[in-house]
Write a structure and sequence with these properties.
Elements lengths: L2 E4 L6 H7 L5 H7 L15 E5 L20 E4 L6 H8 L3 H7 L15 E5 L1
Antiparallel strand pairs: 1-2, 3-4
Keywords: Chitin-binding, Virulence
InterPro entries: LysM, LysM1-like, LysM_dom_sf
Protein name: Carbohydrate-binding module family 50 protein
């Protein structure tokens, strides 16, 4: 995290997002381990992460819509299939498909030699 926001009494997740351009509710929840959708347990005077740097580079080649804040990549080889790769790497298939949407829901567009996101 490279930028934090100190919560004030009365702040909500929505007001924190409004006060921090570029921040989304999804990232606020993820970066601060907020598991309560009502977001009613913010602690005044505590700092919350509101910005994380994007990794400097995504390995090439990769498909255009790969998730950019990926923490782990895998270079596909001939014969790889999404469900088998996910099983071997311990990755949820639906998550893999959402991070790598260009493979398609049936995984027919997974290309050998290309990098794919395995963890965020």
């Amino acid at each position: 995290c490279d930028k934090t926001y100190k919560v004030h009494t009365g702040d909500t997740c929505n007001t924190i997002v409004q006060k921090n351009p570029g921040l989304t509710l999804e990232n606020l929840y993820k970066w601060n381990w907020i598991n309560n959708p009502a977001c009613d347990n913010l602690r005044p005077r505590c700092n919350y992460c509101v910005h994380k740097p994007i990794p400097d580079t995504v390995p090439e080649p990769h498909q255009p819509n790969i998730k950019m804040d990926c923490k782990e990549y895998y270079q596909a080889v001939s014969g790889d299939y999404c469900w088998l790769l996910c099983q071997q790497k311990g990755v949820d298939l639906n998550s893999f498909l959402s991070w790598n949407p260009d493979v398609g829901v049936d995984c027919q567009s997974m290309l050998a030699g290309y990098y794919y996101c395995l963890r965020i």
